[in-house]
UniProtKB/TrEMBL annotation:
<dbReference type="InterPro" id="IPR006626">
    <property type="entry name" value="PbH1"/>
</dbReference>
<protein>
    <submittedName>
        <fullName>Right-handed parallel beta-helix repeat-containing protein</fullName>
    </submittedName>
</protein>
<dbReference type="InterPro" id="IPR006311">
    <property type="entry name" value="TAT_signal"/>
</dbReference>
<dbReference type="Pfam" id="PF13229">
    <property type="entry name" value="Beta_helix"/>
</dbReference>
<dbReference type="InterPro" id="IPR011050">
    <property type="entry name" value="Pectin_lyase_fold/virulence"/>
</dbReference>
<dbReference type="InterPro" id="IPR039448">
    <property type="entry name" value="Beta_helix"/>
</dbReference>
<feature type="domain" description="Right handed beta helix">
    <location>
        <begin position="288"/>
        <end position="354"/>
    </location>
</feature>
<dbReference type="InterPro" id="IPR012334">
    <property type="entry name" value="Pectin_lyas_fold"/>
</dbReference>
Length: 554
């Protein structure tokens, strides 16, 4: 990954005027902002009013990025963007942000579709300006435009927009193009990529080409909207394989906000015969350089081998809402500290050829998952939902439909000291297992299931069980079931390790409830439950509060 470290600089130019002159200026222009003998602020959005000292009647001189406007300009118009901040005693800085300069790539840059290298033309225009003067929106008319230049580095600008007008196709036509662009750098010093927009574009990699779209390191704001890829990635191709990341978005400051909206990567990557999925192309991601907030909304991804939405490795925040991931290996959605998944769907109808999980919650804590639908119709290599985070996490209204074969629906193996709470979650298991197994594995302490319903019915001759509380040797404490229903073929609930301070209340067990020999369950609260199957606690029970319903013997 490139790291471009840049020197401290300034994103704009300011001038100074005395406080008295500034008051006179405001009185002259009022809210509309007009005055004789002055000039309009320029495209950099920094208008500077400086007091005159020669006593002439020339009024106020306005400069923009160091260029003084001619005296014959008759109007000064700050519109609604006028603002003032005190920068030193008796001085006031006048600043404003203006709309970007519009550059039509055909009319202004002379690029012809399906002929010239559009990317080279944009790079030449962009680099011809100083960072504080880069305030442009490149509009690409409808049609197909060639990309033959590898990885333009849009390192620093006030505003950069690359947009289809109304929609355009960027066709990669050179095998040396590994990635279309890099925006900004990991260094948070100025000048930097202040505001960046990319929208209404499709990147075409069909034929013997492969490329990632973008790596963004944004400073203030980034928006990628309605960007898609036509053609299948081929990351491991020895002749023309492109960048590992397809869309990588990082905010380099905690105050940075990025929005990735309505972007579709539905043609996947080409699978190669390897022992692991790692190293194939990643569709949507952020990494260790993200310290800001990324909002991923309404995005789709299908058929990728190295995860789907992979954002677990940073200390920023990722909010994933309304997204749909289909048939991805690794993990469909993989989140880290303080991330939030809301109203998303994960669908598995074709096995990707490598181990997969649907949702993976890892690293740190503070994760929230709500209104997630998971539908699997294939063999599970491990589990559909994997929880291995190091801090607290809460999952609400997660609904799993499993019509595949072997493997688990949920595995929890997180930090024993931090609570993991699943609330209002369901499993509808109509799988066809070839080996006897449990749908839910609890392998750590401090886990709560509240108001959950697990309806588990094998479609083969092999039993499918419910919840298994086990670590393979160590004790587990503070396991809680409250107002849950577990209907399974054989065992609804099984304790395989000793533990203390469990709480099982107001729950329904259609199958066997049991503990293994040599287990000791102490200080357990067990009240208000309904047992419709047998109970068989082969280990010891000490200091329980409450007991089984009347009529059950242990």
């Amino acid at each position: 990954m490139e790291t471009d470290h840049q020197q401290d600089g300034s994103t704009g130019t300011t001038g100074e005027t005395t406080r008295r002159s500034y008051v006179r200026l405001l009185a002259a222009i009022g809210l509309g902002g007009a005055i004789t003998g002055a000039a309009a602020s320029g495209p950099q959005g920094v208008g500077v009013a400086a007091a005159q000292t020669d006593g002439s009647a020339r009024g106020i001189t306005v400069s923009d990025s160091g260029s003084t406007i001619a005296d014959d300009v008759s109007q000064l118009n700050f519109a609604d963007s006028l603002s003032a901040t005190e920068s030193a005693p008796n001085t006031v800085s006048v600043r404003g942000e203006t709309n970007p300069n519009i550059v039509d790539v055909r009319d202004d840059l002379g690029v012809e579709p399906e002929g010239d290298d559009l990317w080279a033309a944009i790079e030449e225009h962009y680099t011809s300006f100083e960072p504080t003067e880069r305030n442009h929106r490149y509009e690409i008319p409808a049609g197909t435009w060639h990309v033959e230049t590898d990885n333009i580095h849009f390192d620093a600008h006030e505003f950069l927009g690359i947009v289809g007008d109304p929609f355009a196709v960027l066709k990669v036509t050179d095998r040396n193009v590994d990635r279309l662009m890099t925006v900004g750098s990991v260094d948070a010093s100025l000048p930097h990529a202040q505001r960046t927009v990319m929208r209404d574009l499709q990147v075409d990699v069909r034929g013997d080409y492969d490329a990632g779209i973008a790596r963004w390191y944004t400073y203030r704001y980034g928006r990628m909207e309605n960007v898609s890829m036509r053609g299948t990635r081929d990351k491991f191709n020895p002749d023309y394989g492109g960048d590992r990341h397809t869309v990588l978005v990082n905010g380099v400051r905690p105050s940075t906000t990025n929005i990735i909206s309505g972007c579709h990567l539905n043609n996947g990557d080409t699978a190669y015969d390897r022992s692991t999925h790692i190293g194939h192309a990643i569709p949507f991601s952020s990494d260790i350089y993200n310290h800001g907030t990324n909002l991923w909304e309404g995005c789709q991804v299908s058929g990728y081998i190295d995860n789907g939405i992979y954002v677990s490795g940073d200390d920023g925040r990722n909010i994933i809402t309304g997204c749909h991931v289909r048939n991805c290996a690794g993990a469909g959605i993989r989140i880290g500290p303080n991330d939030h998944v809301q109203d998303c769907q994960i669908t598995m109808t074709e096995h990707p050829g490598f181990p997969w999980s649907g949702l993976w919650v890892e690293n740190g804590g503070g994760q929230l998952v709500s209104q997630l639908l998971v539908n699997s119709q294939i063999r599970k290599d491990t589990e559909i939902v994997r929880l291995t985070q190091e801090g607290p996490a809460r999952l609400t209204d997660v609904h799993i439909t499993d019509e595949g074969t072997d493997g688990r629906a949920i595995r929890i193996n997180d930090n024993d000291d931090a609570p993991t709470i699943l609330e209002g979650c369901t499993i509808t298991d109509r799988s066809s297992p070839t080996v006897s197994d449990y749908a839910v594995y609890v392998r750590s302490s401090n886990v709560t299931f509240n108001d959950c319903e697990f309806d588990i019915g094998s479609q083969s001759s092999t039993d499918r069980h419910g919840v298994f509380v086990t670590t393979g040797g160590d004790g587990l404490d503070r396991f809680t079931l409250d107002s849950c229903m577990i209907d399974a073929d054989g065992a609804s609930l099984r304790f395989a390790e000793s533990g203390a301070d469990h709480s099982v209340e107001s729950s329904f067990f259609e199958g066997l409830v049991m503990s293994d020999p040599e287990t000791t369950l102490s200080s357990v609260l067990w009240v208000g439950n309904r047992h419709y199957g047998e109970t068989n606690f082969a280990g010891e029970r000490t200091g329980w509060q409450g007991d089984f319903n009347f009529g059950f013997d242990v």
